[in-house]
Specification:
Blueprint lengths: L6 E2 L3 H6 L3 E5 L2 E6 L4 H10 L1 E5 L4 E7 L4 H9 L14 E7 L5 E10 L2 E6 L4 H12 L3 E5 L4 E6 L3 H8 L2 H6 L5 E6 L2 E6 L8 E6 L1 H12 L4 E3 L2 H10 L41 H10 L4 E7 L10 E3 L7 E11 L4 E8 L9 E5 L5 E7 L10
């Protein structure tokens, strides 16, 4: 896809003014990094606050045709292994859309705002997944695409203090992790969620496209806030051991293999009060009981070498037994070392196991299986 075919973000003019290095992501032209570079952005976000443009995500609103949120919750629970009936007003969950074969169709955030449920989908397949949801829910619910809304993410330990100067101080200060509130700003309505994709304190902010630039400039006027690109978002999520859809998880990967069993509500598991009833439930429950043939692990290369997705993993340097494959890797500014994630057979998944990764030139590199996350999660 050429640059001319990429969709502009609502913050396009601001990114250009800030001399961002732009790249293509989910069909949008978005900042990869700014002049300071990924490492500086990453460390600044860890220390204070980074502002990310995540407008490529797909926002949709779902409401029961009879305006009864219990009906909408019932319909949504038939599509994902979450306790949506128990999702209180102004709360948000991380969850999965599963396939009939137990794979992951998408991972998403879902919150309840009054009688509506708001879903934030991954950008790459947002149209397909919105179509899927619309067809599956058409008997009971109405679905409205809000793909024209922008989304910003303010992440880092100073994010709450910064937001409390701009929005209602008491409301921001009293928000708990996974709270999601509608808040007024300059004649518009923001949806502010104490949530994010970095493993740190932070907020995701849904905002009308026409207000996005003004709000972003207001945030950047605070001394603690610097702009950050998607390379930094990737390195932060990697340090936190979080999956990227289409890279670490996909329709051929189950929640059990991906170490995402925690996203399956207890009440939806075998023996729970509303066990099963979602696509692929029988397969997933069987894997939870009997195990899987591969599982996601963290990996630390011994040498200072980037091992990216697709690199094969072997149990021995002679490469007689392939036991897995790397899905993603990057340099960790926090650890000052290379890190990676991938899938290996359970017999080679124990922390401390030595494996051998073979790079594109055929050179073997020693890697060690490491617990996730690489960097402890922090936050409110």
């Amino acid at each position: 896809m050429t640059d001319e075919t990429l969709k502009p973000s609502p913050l396009q003019a601001l990114h250009e003014e800030l001399n961002a290095q732009m790249g293509g992501y989910a069909g949008y032209a978005l900042p990869e990094h700014y002049p300071s570079g990924m490492e500086v952005e990453h460390l600044h976000t860890r220390k204070q606050a980074g502002l990310f443009d995540i407008s490529f995500l797909g926002q949709i609103r779902i409401r029961a045709k009879e305006d009864d949120p219990a009906v909408a919750a019932e319909a949504l629970e038939a599509l994902m292994p979450l306790d949506i009936k128990g999702l209180g007003p102004n709360r948000v969950l991380y969850g999965l859309l599963t396939t009939d074969h137990g794979g992951i169709r998408d991972d998403l955030a879902i919150s309840r705002q009054g009688d509506d449920f708001l879903l934030v989908l991954n950008g790459e397949n947002r149209e397909d997944n919105a179509d899927y949801l619309e067809n599956a829910l058409s008997g009971d619910c109405k679905l409205v695409r809000e793909f024209d809304r922008a989304m910003l993410s303010l992440q880092g330990p100073s994010s709450a203090e910064v937001l409390s100067r701009i929005l209602d101080h008491a409301t921001i200060t009293n928000m708990h992790y996974r709270d999601s509130l509608e808040m007024p700003w300059e004649g518009g309505v923001l949806i502010v969620s104490r949530f994010g994709y970095t493993g740190m304190e932070g907020f995701d902010i849904s905002i009308a496209a026409e207000q996005a630039e003004a709000f972003a400039r207001r945030l950047l006027s605070e001394a603690e806030v610097e702009p950050a690109g998607l390379e930094t978002r990737n390195s932060l999520r990697m340090e936190a051991g979080l999956c990227l859809y289409g890279v670490d998880i996909d329709r051929a990967t189950s929640p059990v293999e991906a170490a995402l069993v925690g996203s399956i509500a207890t009440c939806r598991r075998a023996g729970g009060e509303r066990a099963g009833g979602y696509p692929g439930a029988e397969t997933i429950e069987g894997q939870m009981e009997h195990g899987v043939y591969r599982q996601r692990v963290g990996l630390r290369p011994e040498a200072d070498v980037l091992l990216a997705g697709g690199v094969e993993l072997f149990s021995d340097e002679a490469r007689t037994e392939q036991v897995g494959r790397i899905t993603s890797g990057c340099f960790s500014p926090t650890l000052r070392a290379m890190i990676a994630m991938g899938y290996v057979t359970p017999s080679h998944a124990a922390e401390g196991t030595t494996l051998f990764a073979v790079d594109a030139d055929g050179q073997p590199h020693t890697v060690t299986v490491t617990a996730l996350p690489f960097v402890p999660k922090t936050g409110h």
